[in-house]
């Protein structure tokens, strides 16, 4: 084995170990929360030693931040925001709403949101990351979609951001409160499709000008 191959293998092994630690830490943090999470339990689950863990993450806070960022990155990859240039109004809203509702109400997102909210006062930067990678990212896509539709000649009442905020609130408010506050169930496929259609129909009725035929 030459030095270059050996170096690559070493980096790969190091990356794999880091991923194992992150997976173990995520499991513990999401199960018991940040405050109750034990480094000993994380090490036990990941294997190795405390010194190995601290070689990657010098503090519990640094480990939690890495877990939060890693989880949000994974959630981003499954959100699949569509190409807003090629969609008509109704089609785009349906695709966006379906993806957003599935993502926002998933166990992984809700569990992470609970921990980030609980830790926001102590670590506001985590709340900022979660907010910008989640709600802000979705709002920016939808605001841009509204602007593109307006440029195509669709008459939308109010500003693009105002319309986007109305739609997201209509879609999410019931599920987010039920999931966060009373540990309500994840919506099933029928419930998602029903709520998506209701939100889209409500938006087209309240915010899109023109005849009923034009709104379909």
UniProtKB/TrEMBL annotation:
Entry keyword set: DNA-binding
Species this chain originates from: Iodidimonas muriae
Protein's name according to its UniProt entry: TetR family transcriptional regulator
HTH tetR-type domain boundaries: 15-75
Entry-linked PROSITE patterns: HTH_TETR_2
Upper classification of the organism: Bacteria, Pseudomonadati, Pseudomonadota, Alphaproteobacteria, Iodidimonadales
Domain of life where this protein originates: Bacteria
Residues annotated to bind DNA: 38-57
UniProt-listed InterPro entries: Homeodomain-like_sf, HTH-type_TetR-like_transc_reg, HTH_TetR, Tet_transcr_reg_TetR-rel_C_sf, TetR_C_Proteobacteria
SUPFAM superfamilies from the UniProt entry: Homeodomain-like, Tetracyclin repressor-like, C-terminal domain
